[in-house]
């Protein structure tokens, strides 16, 4: 009695308050909203770090490397399939070309981190702009805790930076400075954020391309799924113009 969670079918089910507010798209986010979002993330990390003393290899690094290795192996046996009536059929072509040019960076950039011991704690591991709710410039909630696992905080920072501000240097600085006012980062940790953002974007492209055009995964809203793929394609295409 009095608990907000129950255990059933080997899962924990939690009753949470419905949070007010709405997410903000990357093109519309303000500096004040970025500052508020990364302050909220730092406060959450700080609360979850209480009593934690775990250290180990960064699981986020290993997950990205494994995703690349699975993709590399898949290419030897499977081909992409896009139906002629797919309104987004140009997307897999563009995505395929980008991966041909950039996927090889994934193991190159991750390899130096495979044997580095880092502080680990519980992290959201899937915090992107749709999971941060605002009323005006105020954060009203961080939602969706389904991906929580022990990792390095750089995993969450990379995910949110890449989703909310992409490659806008001024807003990336705003977000990191807001976070570090509460949870300082070492130079090594800042470097890891950049590495995880770049490799995570490429792995995200691999994942969505595989789901949509290799696995044939069903999405109730295929338009929204294709738009996620498009956002990744367009971000990586912008890299090539820098």
Question: How would you describe this structure to a colleague?
Answer:
The model has no long low-confidence stretch (mean pLDDT 91). Strands 1-2 form a two-stranded antiparallel sheet. It has a two-stranded antiparallel ribbon with strand order 3-4. Strands 5-8 form a two-stranded antiparallel sheet. A hairpin with a 2-residue loop joins strand 6 and strand 7 (138-142). 51% of the residues lie in helices and 12% in strands. The protein has one domain: Aminoglycoside 3'-phosphotransferase, Chain: A, domain 2 (Alpha-Beta Complex). The chain is mainly alpha-helical.
Mean pLDDT metric = 91
Count of the domains? 1
Main sheet properties:
2 strands, antiparallel
Q: Could you tell me the strand content as a percent range?
A: 5-15%
What is the CATH architecture annotation?
Alpha-Beta Complex
Give the class from helix and strand content and strand pairing: mainly alpha
Low-confidence stretches: none
Fold-level CATH name: Aminoglycoside 3'-phosphotransferase, Chain: A, domain 2
What is the count of helical runs?
A: 8
- CATH class placement: Alpha Beta
Strand order of the largest sheet: 1-2
Shape type: globular
- Give the H and E element order: EEHEHHHEEEEEHHHH
Instruction: Give the N-terminus to C-terminus distance in angstroms.
Output: 58 Å
Q: What is the CATH superfamily? A: Aminoglycoside phosphotransferase (APH), C-terminal lobe
Helix percent band: 40-55%
Number of beta-strand segments: 8
Rg, Å, rounded = 19 Å
Descriptive keywords:
single chain, 242 residues, mainly alpha, Aminoglycoside 3'-phosphotransferase, Chain: A, domain 2, two-stranded antiparallel ribbon, 51% helix, globular
């Amino acid at each position: 009695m009095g608990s907000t969670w129950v255990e059933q079918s080997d899962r924990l089910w939690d009753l949470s308050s419905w949070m007010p507010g709405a997410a903000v798209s990357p093109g519309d986010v303000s500096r004040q909203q970025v500052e508020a979002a990364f302050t909220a993330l730092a406060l959450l990390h700080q609360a979850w770090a209480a009593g934690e003393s775990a250290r180990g290899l960064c699981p986020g690094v290993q997950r990205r490397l494994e995703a690349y290795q699975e993709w590399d192996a898949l290419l030897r046996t499977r081909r992409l399939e896009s139906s002629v009536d797919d309104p987004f059929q140009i997307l897999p072509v563009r995505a395929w070309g980008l991966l041909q040019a950039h996927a090889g960076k994934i193991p190159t950039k991750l390899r130096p981190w495979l044997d580095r011991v880092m502080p680990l704690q519980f992290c959201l591991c899937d915090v992107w702009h749709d999971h941060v709710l605002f009323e005006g410039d105020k954060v009203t909630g961080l939602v969706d805790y389904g991906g929580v696992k022990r990792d390095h905080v750089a995993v969450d920072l990379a995910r949110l930076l890449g989703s909310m501000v992409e490659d806008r240097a001024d807003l990336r600085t705003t977000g990191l400075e807001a976070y570090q006012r509460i949870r300082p980062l070492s130079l090594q940790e800042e470097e890891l954020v950049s590495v995880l953002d770049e490799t995570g974007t490429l792995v995200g492209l691999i994942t969505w391309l595989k789901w949509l055009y290799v696995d044939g995964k069903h999405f109730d809203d295929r338009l929204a799924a294709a738009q996620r793929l498009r956002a990744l394609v367009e971000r990586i295409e912008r890299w090539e113009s820098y």
